[in-house]
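haha ok so turns out i had the wrong file open the whole time. this is the CORRECT one, sorry everyone. sequence first:
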Amino acid sequence: MHKTTTPRSLSALDTIPVFELDYDLPPAERWEMLPKRQRNRGRKLMEKVLEMTPNSLVAGASGKILRLTTMARNPFRAEIEGAARVLGAGFDDALVTNFIIEFTTIGLYTGSLAQKSADSFAEGLSGIFENLRGWSRACTAGVMHSDHLGMLHLRALDWPLPGIGETTILLHHVNTPGGDYYSVGWPGYCGVLSGFKPGAFSASINQTFLFGRPSLQWPPSHLLRRVFDECETYDEALDALSHSSVCVPAMILLSSADRAAAVEMTPKGNRVHPMENGRPIAVANDYLSADWREEFHATYPDFAAYLEDQTESVDPAEPAVDMDDRRNALLERMNRRNPRTPAQAFKILQNAPVEYNLTMQQMVYSHEKDELLIVGREYEKPVCALQL
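then structure:
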């Protein structure tokens, strides 16, 4: 990648910092050179996560599952311990923050089961479910082809946690087995939610919902980290994602310079939905497979209705939108537009319902140009940006 000019509309914002994660260092030491300002921001964000985390049996059960998963299927345990030390936090606190998507997915599933029971214990879990479900309106992503920029990977990360946007950092993973790459995250986060390997592939995770028991397999965000660490090509990445098991479901959108696919991953198995005939492909939080969509809605009948009623757009005067509205809106825009620059491509993400009050990070990656544009948002406006 090479330095380019940040779009004028974003040039006055704070610059998103780049931090080098060097794999030649022992895992527990990779975060040691994190600047003091980033340490403070990472610690404050972790504190916010913990404030929103229910102190309950749901949290305890989820924590045990995540601990076991970390021990059995996660080579990043030492790195999380090192990040916790750098941030001045305990390992358990860092673990919850690193498994933020997996934790809420398990908590939502447990709470949905409790809502169907009438005993007093279930009533307590049902209340926790009410709190957790507010976390889980997360992300719209799409891939399209531009005559001027080649294949474009567009991504909006939505999460009801103020602080993610202003705390955004770009991690440059160097000296990895499969080649150097970038991921968009925050200080102390060791998974990959959005990643870009120049000349090879890009990928992003959307949360989807559990309709069966979780398993002691890979956490999706750390599986994607391993894929970027070890895979050199799109074909290798797609094969790894297609044949790996996960502890909770996730939708992973994968792209290269000439192909793309959405990979639905669940403890019951994985399904691949490839881009067809060069037409844009987009994902939100609902399943693409009709039978899995039915199981999701049957598992969370009240929650599905809640998502449709409560997912808010940027303009409070506009009607509420659901997950399909976000995905379909992004598809419609990608079909109509042929951007010439990353800044023009970024505008595809900037209108409701794709952008709304919980959008914390936005990014565009051009495979042909190897250009990356990232924007962090707080309180419905951009606060920091970076273009490489």
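Residues 19-134 form one domain.
again sry for the mixup
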